[in-house]
Amino acid sequence: MIPPKPAARQDKVSLWRYLKLFRQDILSAQPQRLYRAWMAEFKTAFFRSYLVNQPELVDLVLKGRPMDFPKSDRVSEGLRPLLGRSVFLTNGAEWERQRRIIDPAFEGGRLRDTYPAMWAAAQAAVQRMDGHVGQVIDIEPETSHVAADVIFRTLFTIPIEHEIASQVFHEFRAYQRSQPILNLAAFIPLPKWMPRFFRKDTKDSARLIRRLITQLTAERMDAIRAGTAPDDLATKIMTTADPETGETFTTEEMVDQVAIFFLAGHETSASALGWSLYLMALYPEWQDKVAAEAEALKTGDFSEVSSLKISRDVFREALRLYPPVPMMVRETTQPECFRDRKVPKGSQIVLSPWHQQRHERLWDNPDGFDPDRTKTEEGRAASRCAYMPFSAGPRVCTGAGFAMVEGPLILSMLLKHFRFKLTDSAPPIPVAHLTLRSANGIYLEVERR
Ligand code: HEM
Predict the structure, then answer these.
(1) Residue 155 Cα: closest atom of ligand 1
(2) Ligand 1 atom showing the smallest separation from residue 260 Cα
(3) Exposed site from 64, 152, 285, 448, fewest CB < 10 Å?
(4) Hey, what long-range contacts does 121-126 have (CB within 8 A, 24 or more apart)?
């Protein structure tokens, strides 16, 4: 049995048909050959896009000369009303400064401090799930709930039930519904100068979310000054001075960063957990193994995480098959030559974890679910060169270590208490929205274990 994969389109279709498919979903709009190609060129009237799968070329863009391939404005513009000048969107010196201030809060050792908040969120998720025993539910709203809870607890020491936290969470749902797939504008053949219109409700939700986050951030700034702030991620980031200039973030700058922590931190983990649970229902023998291992989770001490080896392998394999960020886009700042082809300045370079991690020439059994694949030399080699759910190089996800603790922990906690089973509903169909979600929900039956 192969985990769900959207049907690719035929290799040749008209531009009109491509655009129509694109509006439905970016994944099924792509041709089958991208699972075999090292590079593919998309010519549009106004610019060119190159999807790059060859490991050496991906390395060049992300690690070799990352400063020559900044984030593309085409992609950023859809997110700007919500994210302002956050670290996810900036480039060059501004981005470097922001990472110098943010990175220390996410360093390995700090995860230990963050862990009790993750543990509390996982326990709350178990309690909520208890109310669904005997029911068939869409699992995605549940995983979004727990992932948002983790972010508020670790960042601001408040649970999702906190008034502002729950307002941000709900408003965010509205934002996602109204936000078109502008973040993938790198494929859409519109000229740069053409004004993009945000729908009024998108702008309204972005404004409201930012007002709420501003309130939390301003209150925290006051608490830091008064010496009463809790020692959480927000306090760490807001009190860390840039080692080069000695400056800390202003409240306004921090609002932009909080917006991206919330967006990048909860949407992605929610997507990964949703697919992981579906895979567990599809492969009950793996579900039982994770559940047995989860017995080690008893006290909430950070050391227990190291026993969640199977859970981590399962979560890692879920991130390979269903990368929450299925594609990333960069722009060339000078003419380049890729695989003997001239790539003009201003081209869009698309890096696709979705395609690379299912590439037929790089992976054995690319569409199959095999959490043990890293136990073979071949599997390890593919993981080293063709696995990038968190991106790579200096712009690698700041939250990668955080997510690799949070994901396996929540997966294990849920499977320790519950069994998730397939139902008669149609299998979920992966579609790329802001993150990789299911077009039709992920319906599972919940049983007490
Ligand atoms: C399974 C969970 C996650 C996945 C798969 C994931 C994936 C990614 C990817 C692929 C990028 C690079 C995007 C690009 O270059 O276009 C990224 C960037 C980022 N992520 Fe994550 N992420 C996850 C969780 C988190 C968490 C929990 C946080 C914070 C609490 C976080 C914060 C960020 C930030 C701030 C960036 C921007 C980094 C930069 O541009 O310098 N992410 N993430």
Answers:
(1) 30
(2) 35
(3) 285
(4) 121/146, 121/149, 121/150, 121/153, 121/159, 121/160, 121/410, 122/146, 122/409, 122/410, 122/413, 122/414, 123/413, 124/149, 124/159, 124/160, 125/149, 125/410, 125/413, 125/414, 126/413, 126/414, 126/417, 126/418
